[in-house]
Amino acid sequence: HRLLTSMCARGYVQRDAETSVYRAGMRLCEMSSYIVDNLDIVERARASLERLEQCTDETVHLVMRDDKDIVYIHKVDNGSSALRMFSRIGMRLPLYCTGVGKAILATWDTAEVRDVWQHSDVHAWTEHTIVDEDAFFREIDKVRQLGYALDNEENELGVRCIAAAIPDYRGRASYAISLSAPVSRMTDQRVAELRAPLMAARDE
User: Fold this and answer.
1) Model pTM?
2) In sequence order, what DSSP letters do the residues of the chain get, joined into one string?
3) Closest-CA residue to 65 (of 114, 28, 38, 98)
4) Which pLDDT value is given to residue 17?
5) Which of 167, 162, 117 lies closest to 142, judged by CA?
6) Tens digits of per-residue pLDDT, 37-92?
7) How far apart are CA 182 and CA 83, in angstroms?
8) Is residue 188 predicted with pLDDT exceeding 90?
9) pLDDT tens-place string over residues 138-185
10) Residue 133 — very low, low, confident or very high, per pLDDT cuts 50/70/90?
């Protein structure tokens, strides 16, 4: 009771005068916002992403959403691959044509996704880029059903990837991770094999 009284005095807990029921106070919201704002996701994710690369032997990316784009903020290269992807930390690509971007968008409501599509400079990065609006929204629906997204050479020829969004406590994502490999190795069977370790790393 003394602890509750102190927490009430400082705004961390509120007491209903009529029912005497205690509930969380607004200071807890302030504290949680401070924690989220000061969370270094790269440091938190680094070990998990390194383990993901080691167990899959594929290149791992971590991206964050910035307006209508994604930005690469961490990369763990597959040292044994002869193919070197052009991705680099700090590189910016549109949400609509990347696996990580589509994974992020699939956690948003449809009106928000449509706004991103309508305000993006939609064009074909490769012959495989989805540039038709109806086809794009069918793809987003598919990502929602599967829980992961694919990039089938949509922004880089010769490279295929599987991606998963990292949702926050509301179920909405601003970050995503992916595994990328040459199309010769990233078969549908390989995608199926990579899904479980990718999702495990996402959850971790």
Assistant:
1) 0.80
2) -HHHHHHHHTTSEEE-TTT--EEE-HHHHHHHHHHHHT--HHHHHHHHHHHHHHHH-SEEEEEEEETTEEEEEEEE--TT-S---S--TT-EEESTTSHHHHHHHTTS-HHHHHHHHHTS----SSTT----HHHHHHHHHHHHHHSSEEEESSSSTTEEEEEEEEE-TTS-EEEEEEEEEETTT--HHHHHHHHHHHHHHHH-
3) 98
4) 84
5) 162
6) 666 888 889 999 999 999 999 999 999 999 999 999 899 987 655 455 667 888 89
7) 7
8) yes
9) 999 999 999 999 999 998 899 999 999 999 888 999 999 999 999 999
10) very high
Compute the radius of gyration of the chain from its Cα atoms. Answer: 21
How far apart (Å, rounded) are the C-alpha atoms in residues 9 and 18?
18
Rounded to whole angstroms, the Cα distance separating 106 from 90 reads 23
Tokens read off for 119: 């305000």
Q: How far apart are CA 112 and CA 118, in angstroms?
A: 10
Residue 117, token pair as written in the block: 């599509």
Burial pattern 33-42, b for ≥16 Cβ within 10 A else e, equals eeeeeeeeee
